[in-house]
Amino acid sequence: MKSWLKKLGVGIIIPGMLLLSACGSASTGNNDGGKKADGIQERTIKAGIGLNEDHPEGLGLKKFSEIVAEKSGGKLTVKPFYSATLGDDQKMTEALQGGLQEITIPSTSPLVGMIKEFGIFDFPFLFNTPEEADAVLDGPVGQKLLEKLPEHGLIGLGYWENGFRQLTNSKHPVEKAEDFQGLKIRTMQNEVHLDAFKELGANPTPMAFSEVFTALESKTVDGQENPLATIKSNKFNEVQDYLSLTGHVYTPFVFLVSKKFWDGLSEEEQTILQDAAVEAGKYQRQISREEDAKAIEEIKESGTKVNEVSAEEKQKMKEVIQPIIDDYSEKFGQDLVDEMMKEIEKVRK
């Protein structure tokens, strides 16, 4: 067993920064005849997310909108769209690439089909402490991945927090690796997640996030896995009997801007959006941590049975899925994975 799969904790990420110079001419609501904009122009910016406005991500987006309005003197207006009203993460990301939408803040997992290296963040039981997550996401590894986005029509302004994913289901508590056997679990369409759950004996079932509550209620699937704030804010616990604190995967959000839109902004406008993404991200992480701590008690009060997973059983789960990690390390790039592990080990010393 590798040393980096020893313990499980709660990771907190601090947004990285990526300041890119613009070189194109596209802008929203303004056609400058091919010239890059000067100063701050009147613009309306569509920003969509998959979660609702009461979720920490929604609260972070609201804060971002307020900061942008203040810093631009009201000239830049961010119009938030919540609860996947503009589509799921994949559709909104594609809309950014096509210049039809300006901002979205998806989980990194759906980006793996476009940039395989983002898959390293899907490795189960990766981070033990907040400092480890900070070192990877704010350091050279996180920056390298952001730098791959422009060639795909996207600009990355940093990482926000989604959180550690926990498991709910309607069958029984999951206390040991064997308890996954036969459970039909809704997952994202992500190959690492799918293969890891299969290795544990579960039946992972990819499904759009907007369909999850109905699928749980109708028992089309037995369970799902998401961070606590997402479970609570979407009321999944109301149609699930058990919450098992597996903390099996940590998922960041990545703050994305359409490159077509970005390239038409002035340097002043770019700076406003960059600074606002970082400032709002700090607020978002704080709210996320606070909500995560409160969510367990509120879920318990709702009648859902909550169980911890012992360190010994988590170790057994890690051992079961280690071949999956080894295989994907080669696929995503062993050098990049080794660099990530070195960053984590520096913090652990």
From TrEMBL:
This is TRAP transporter substrate-binding protein. Coiled coil: none annotated. The keyword Transmembrane helix does not apply. Belongs to the bacterial solute-binding protein 7 family. GO terms for cellular component: outer membrane-bounded periplasmic space. Residues 1-26 form the signal peptide. PROSITE patterns: PROKAR_LIPOPROTEIN (PS51257). Keywords: Signal, Transport. Pfam families: DctP (PF03480).
